[in-house]
Amino acid sequence: EPEVTQTPSHQVTQMGQEVILRCVPISNHLYFYWYRQILGQKVEFLVSFYNNEISEKSEIFDDQFSVERPDGSNFTLKIRSTKLEDSAMYFCASSGTLAKNIQYFGAGTRLSVL
Amino acid sequence: DAKTTQPNSMESNEEEPVHLPCNHSTISGTDYIHWYRQLPSQGPEYVIHGLTSNVNNRMASLAIAEDRKSSTLILHRATLRDAAVYYCILRAMDTGRRALTFGSGTRLQVQP
Predict the structure, then answer these.
(1) DSSP notation for B19-88
(2) Which of the four pLDDT bands, split at 50, 70 and 90, describes residue B1?
(3) Chain A residue nearest residue B30, CA to CA
(4) What is the pLDDT of residues B63-102, one digit of tens each?
(5) pLDDT tens-digit profile of A19-73?
(6) What span, in angstroms and rounded, lies between the C-alpha atoms of B4 and B26?
(7) Which DSSP letter does residue A84 get?
(8) In this complex, is the C-beta atom of B91 within 8 Å of any C-beta atom belonging to chain A?
(9) Could you say which of A42, A55, A108 has the minimum Cβ distance to residue B98?
(10) B107 CB within 8 Å of a chain A CB
(11) Is B103 on the interface with A (CB under 8 A)?
(12) Which end of chain B has fewer CB atoms at under 10 Å, N or C?
């Protein structure tokens, strides 16, 4: 069964450093998303991406965040200057059709900012 | 987005049916009812969705009240692997808003 793949599974970084989280969505999907989940808290939407541009973003997704689909398969989330409070699980998701919009999630990347 | 209300936690015994309730009294006519679950240390996983009629798939059944103000996710025979947080999410049909809004969900514990 097709799945969303995220790498790395765990990323440790120093505060102020840039990180790039990588995702390979399901191959024929058109919509891509990033969510995050701080330990013990709810899953929070960050951004959605369609047709090579951001279609929606939350208040969390400020100027420190950016997304890119650099080629036909990868979808990345960049955090320019990490803060301690960016420590969380980051989930990538993709969906294939607008009507159903069933989102398929990856296993996540645990980001630890020290 | 319309709000959903779910119990914080529920317990079940293995191989018994589980009924997970969700109240959504402010649901609009074009809102779909989606259920996702999140197993420990994993990403959310789609379970089922519906609009008005009851729905069945290989994972579960979704029973929707006639007035659509509540719904129930039914796991017919709980297994230990079904221990997870279950989220009931309303999603507007094709409004251009494509995010899923997760609440706190119901933590299901399954006892052997």
Answers:
(1) EEEEE-TT--TTEEEEEEEE-TTS--EEEEEESSS-EE-SS-EEEE-TTSSEEEEEESS--GGG-EEEEE
(2) low
(3) A99
(4) 999 999 999 999 999 999 999 999 999 988 765 557 899 9
(5) 999 999 998 888 899 999 999 999 999 999 988 999 999 999 999 999 999 887 8
(6) 8
(7) G
(8) yes
(9) A55
(10) no
(11) yes
(12) C
Of B45, B91, B99, the CB nearest to A105: B45
- Going by C-alpha positions, the residue among A38, A21, A22, A19 that lies closest to residue A82 is A19
Q: The tokens 């191959």 sit on which residue?
A: A27
Chain A residues whose CB is inside 8 A of the B100 CB are 35, 43, 45, 103
Q: How high does pLDDT run on average in chain B? A: 92
Residues in chain A: 114
- Cα–Cα nearest to A58, from B90, B99, B96, B44: B99
Residue A98 in this model has a pLDDT that exceeds 60 = no
Per residue in B2-16, pLDDT (tens digit) is 689 999 999 999 999
Chain B interface, best mutation among A29, A44, A101, by max B CB count within 10 A: A101
